[in-house]
Amino acid sequence: MTGETPLRADAQRKRVQILAAAEDVFRERGARVSLDEVAKRAGVGIGTLYRRFPTREDLLAATYSARFVAFAETSRTRSPHLDPSDALRCYLEELIQYSNLYRGFAASLGTVLQIGTPGCRATLGEGARLLDIAQKAGAVRPDVIFDDLICVATAISLATEQDSSPRPRIVHLVNVFLNGIGMQPNPNPPSQAPNMA
């Protein structure tokens, strides 16, 4: 559910209540918390919640939408002042930090970004744009696709979500990944693994 269809005043009020409650509960308990708890906090029945947000990912996408719009706009404004690889690096680092806002959110990142909220579309569009620019500049291998970036962002988010100060580890892991995708694959790979005996 994207929330773009106009709603009656009472429906809009309930939607706002649900999103405010979800924000609080997800921050307190993490993204995997029971949606019954979100409904209770919002003062609505679970059926009302599911009518507006049929899946957990729909609800997560809606709570993140404004953040993702701001994130994409910041990236787009910043990118002309950076070289293509640095622009992509900043995008990935910040996407991972956003993914750690709710504990457990990272596991749903790829699915959430496909929901179609304005924030999800902006985030996908910006990432694809930066990847294309980096590939045209020769900074990233041509066989890398945007889904690869999401897989790596998810893995790094999962690896760092329990850290009390995750930023240095995120920066290190993003650099390891980007250094890897900047290298050309070996045109003559070994035909078999070396004998370790």
Automatic annotation (TrEMBL):
PROSITE patterns: HTH_TETR_2 (PS50977). Gene3D superfamilies: Tetracycline Repressor, domain 2. The keyword Ligase does not apply. Coiled coil: none annotated. Residues 12-71 form the HTH tetR-type domain. It comes from the Bacteria. Residues 34-53 bind DNA. InterPro entries: Homeodomain-like_sf, HTH-type_TetR-like_transc_reg, HTH_TetR, Tet_transcr_reg_TetR-rel_C_sf, TetR_SbtR-like_C. Keywords: DNA-binding, Transcription, Transcription regulation. This is TetR/AcrR family transcriptional regulator. It comes from Roseibium litorale.
